Amino acid sequence: MTARSDRLEAARIFREVALAAGFSRFGVARAEAPARFERFRDWIAAGRHAGMAYLERTADVRSRPQNLLPDAKSVVCLAAPYRTDALCAQDGSILARYAAGPDYHGTLRKRAIHVARAAVARIAGPVRWRVCVDSTPLAERSFAAAAGLGWIGKNGCLIDRELGSYLLLAEIVTDLDLPPDDPVAELCGSCVRCLESCPTGAFLEPGLLDAARCLAYWTIEHRGPLPDAVKESVGNRVFGCDICQEACPWNGPVRPDATDPEVPTRAEWLQMGKGEWRRRFGATALNRAGRRGIQRNAAASAGATGDRALLPALGRAAEIADRGFSDAARWAIDRLTPPPATSKGLR
Question: Which long-range contacts does 53-58 make (Cβ < 8 Å, 24+ apart)?
């Protein structure tokens, strides 16, 4: 397919099918290193990725779609909005919004595969393609920005002027030579609300995140015990952190009084067994942290928020063999237990 009319028609078909499948944004980027990708390489070289060694291993792959699909010429970029209300339990503990419902890795991949198959069925000639969602080593935010789906904000999130930054991304890498879309202008201006809102000062400058200071990294990606400074900062966050997005004026107002009865409280997390975990959360994005990871976070949150009612549950958790969980439980117990009174000798 080389004629411009054929290329335009193929792109039109992809767009039509994508929007019909429920994706809210569609764009095409060239299958070449996206603009500013060198910043990602510099970020890795500076060690700002903390313990996420997989990012370092795949750094060279992420900007070259040809590593995923030989002869790739275009990256079809798709975006779908997710929940905008806070995902809050009745005790005030909070999960990252994207964790609501079934794991998006599977649901979004199925929708993107449907788009690819339905579009290719209407295009003459053989077409090769591969669907990517998050875990596939592709610089998806950079390609989405190159395709005009939004701009990358100062907090590193892709932002759409109408949908904000609560967006899930998927890509279809293809050997079709589709006409690329133009990037959109960056509209953050002088606003730095996202940077100023971060409770741990994880942003070293606009667009430069130190993952070793980020609550989302510690509560989702990190395995094992949390540093005491992180435990102090966790607050109500037991999985992820949306604070920099909540502060963004391109997103809607937060509803802090809204609670979801399906979200477990810290007490429920602490006592949750394997069977209940598999039944309720085995097919959700929470599996990235795992049951013990979230229990660790819940124990730290109990200490950080002063929830003394959980002392009995924390006492049992302190005896669990998992190092991260038991360490957080002991830390919380120490924080919640007042020091013994000291008696002064009589003069």
Answer: 58/137
Residue 345 has pLDDT above 60, yes or no: no
182 classed as catalytic: no
Q: What is the distance between the alpha carbons of residues 120 and 128, in angstroms, rounded to a whole number?
A: 9
Which region, left, alpha or beta, applies to residue 251 given φ > 0 means left and ψ of -120 to 50 means alpha? Answer: beta
The class (CATH top level) of 4-82+99-174 is alpha beta
Kindly name the residue from 85, 134, 181, 228 that is annotated as catalytic: 134
Tell me the two tokens of residue 261. 């009865």
Helices 290-305 & 274-281 angle (0-180, nearest 10): 100
pLDDT tens digits, one per residue of 129-143? 999 999 899 999 999
Q: What is the mean pLDDT of residues 326-333?
A: 98
Domain boundaries, the chain: 4-82+99-174, 200-240+264-336
Q: Residue 257: what pLDDT?
A: 65
For residue 1, pLDDT over 60 is answered with no
What are the phi and psi torsion angles at 74 (to 5°)? -140, 155
